[in-house]
Design brief:
With 390 residues, the protein is mostly helical. 64% of the residues lie in helices and 4% in strands. It has 15 helices and 3 strands. It has helices at residues 12-17, 23-38, 44-52, 60-79, 84-94, 97-110, 124-131, 136-152, 168-186, 190-215, 236-249, 269-294, 303-331, 335-356, 370-380; strands at residues 225-230, 253-257, 262-267. The protein has a 3-stranded antiparallel sheet with strand order 1-3-2. β2 (253-257) and β3 form a beta hairpin. α2 runs antiparallel to α3 and α9 (168-186) runs parallel beside α12. The N and C termini lie far apart (110 Å).
């Protein structure tokens, strides 16, 4: 009697290695791989790419599924408080250039008219892969890495994107501030750079005082906004302290997220503009001063020295910015009228901050280098910051 040949049933591993057929199956496979990557499963991105795109041509169902998955995940993180500039910053810090590019394209697709370069009548993924000269496997790897990063992002308190100042005069004054800070950043003399920064703080304070008097008569003052400022490694703790002292000198409150590396600043919108401008400039100046101070001494190039230098620099700069702001307020012709208005503004900012961050943990920054502390304070203390206005 002839024996009938039967095909051996596929094992579980072989079934797992088979390629999905429909766009829905491709989508589920992409999201599963991204979830595995977000959980820290080793090799999840490349393993899924090998299974989903084993050939030299992207399956049409895979291209369609990638578009849907990206829109789904981007939509969720946007609803959870992540602004486009936040996603740009976090992607640049955590994934490679191809995954960054895919995140930015997904953002553009989520808000049509904001930067699509591809033909929207055709699936995005093949066009994107061709633009970056990627094989199907490389393209899918980048997609999974991008989606995996987005899946790890926590909910964020609402933040308001930057906008122009309230008044026409504000734009002119901020232009003067930018010019002063640009000159400070280009100066090779620390004394001159710090004097220019102090002059910028004086101008910003004057503008803020003029603004609050104008808005004091408004029936309903604008609610405070918030802004996220992203910091670059290393020395995030020390750099966040610099943001904090600048925010405090400009009537704002700040809180640092050490896991993701950004500081949220809460305050009136024009004050937030001022904090962003001055912080960016001071970080450049502080880094330059730190490097210049330690270039001739190997011990002064240690991590402990530089961390302590930046903490000391931020502490002393904060003292001097506060002094410059207080001096400007004392010299204002309407100082008596300003005090209750500023107190009301401070209360609004504090209330908004408490609503956004009901649980705040205070954390100290460790200083391990006496030389670094002294050098940082000296660098921040060289200039006479209380200069007459001009």
């Amino acid at each position: 009697m002839a024996k009938q040949k039967r095909r051996k049933p596929a094992s579980a591993d072989e079934r797992a290695e088979s390629q999905p057929v429909t766009a829905e199956e491709f989508g589920n496979a992409l999201l599963t791989a991204a979830y595995d990557l977000a959980r820290g499963v080793p090799g999840a991105a490349k393993k899924s790419a090998k299974r989903l795109a084993p050939d030299l041509t992207l399956p049409s169902g895979l291209a369609e599924a990638a578009d849907r998955a990206a829109k789904q995940v981007i939509g969720r993180v946007r609803r959870n408080g992540w602004l486009p500039e936040d996603l740009d910053q976090v992607a640049r810090r955590h994934v490679d250039e191809f995954a960054v590019s895919y995140v930015l394209d997904a953002l553009a697709a989520h808000a049509p008219g904001t930067g699509e370069w591809w033909d929207p009548a055709e699936p995005h993924l093949p066009q994107w892969a061709a633009k970056h000269i990627l094989t199907p496997g490389e393209a899918v790897t980048a997609v999974v890495e991008a989606l995996g990063l987005l899946m790890t992002l926590p909910d964020l308190p609402a933040a308001t994107p930057g906008r122009p100042p309230h008044h026409a005069t504000g734009g002119k004054k901020l232009s003067r501030v930018r010019a002063l800070l640009a000159k400070a950043e280009s100066s090779s003399f620390p004394e001159e750079a710090e004097a220019l920064s102090a002059k910028a703080q004086e101008l910003m304070t004057r503008h803020a005082l003029d603004r609050v008097l104008v808005e004091a008569d408004a029936a309903a003052p604008d609610a405070p906004g918030s802004r996220r400022l992203w910091l670059d490694t290393p020395y995030l703790d020390a750099k966040s302290l610099l943001v904090h002292v600048v925010a405090q000198a400009n009537r704002c409150r700040a809180i640092f997220d050490p896991e993701w590396g950004y500081v949220t600043v809460v305050g009136d919108e024009d004050d937030l503009d001022a904090v962003a401008l001055l912080t960016t400039s001071l970080l450049v100046q502080a880094t330059r001063a730190m490097i210049a101070d330690g270039q001739d001494d190997r011990g002064r190039r240690s991590r402990e020295f530089r961390q302590s230098f930046l903490v000391s620099y931020a502490t002393r700069v904060g003292e001097r910015l506060e002094q410059a702001a207080e001096t400007t307020l004392a010299a204002a012709p309407d100082a008596d009228r300003l005090l209750p208005v500023l107190a009301s503004q401070e209360k609004r900012v504090a209330t908004t901050f408490a609503a956004l961050f009901p649980e705040v943990v205070n954390k100290s920054v460790t200083v391990r280098s006496h030389d670094g502390w002294g050098a940082g304070r000296a660098a921040a203390d060289r200039a006479r910051l209380n200069q007459p206005g001009s």
